[in-house]
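Example for tutorial group B:
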């Protein structure tokens, strides 16, 4: 069994900050944990907009605090995200994530992240086998 507390993650190499400071991701589970997915507790800073395109991953996002929205790039549909809302980028949708209030999100990636991924110029994370 794996038991971990976010306080152990803060300040460790499992804590990753976006290059533009839009978010901070505490990576509770990574590929090396060997469970087939990764899981992050992610803070999205208030007032930020982040372009994302997870072409190499499926991401499920469950909002537990704050308020924001996701706009899909292809059809400009906007989805409000509030505590209790799940969204899943099961078709690798390009999107804009906006935080109206500081958001706290539980993010699951498959295939799992390996550690220190940040967004590449095209909005994706690299696929590291
Ligand atoms: C929702 C989202 O993808 N935010 C960017 C950070 C990412 N969730 C991560 O690495 O934790």
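The residue assignment follows.
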């Amino acid at each position: 069994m794996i038991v971990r507390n976010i306080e152990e993650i803060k300040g460790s190499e499992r804590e990753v900050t976006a290059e533009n400071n839009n978010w901070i991701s505490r990576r509770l589970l990574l590929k090396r944990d060997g469970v087939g997915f990764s899981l992050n507790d992610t803070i999205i800073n208030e007032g930020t907009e982040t372009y994302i395109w997870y072409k190499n991953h499926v991401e499920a996002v469950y909002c537990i605090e704050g308020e924001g929205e996701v706009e899909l790039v292809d059809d400009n549909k906007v989805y409000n995200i509030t505590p209790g809302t799940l969204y899943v980028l099961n078709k690798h949708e390009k999107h804009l994530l906006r935080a109206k209030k500081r958001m706290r999100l539980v993010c699951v990636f498959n295939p799992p992240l390996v550690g220190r991924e940040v967004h590449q110029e095209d909005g994706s994370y690299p696929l590291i086998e």
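The CA atoms of residues 27 and 40 lie 4 Å apart. Compare this with the pattern of hydrophobic and polar residues in the output above.
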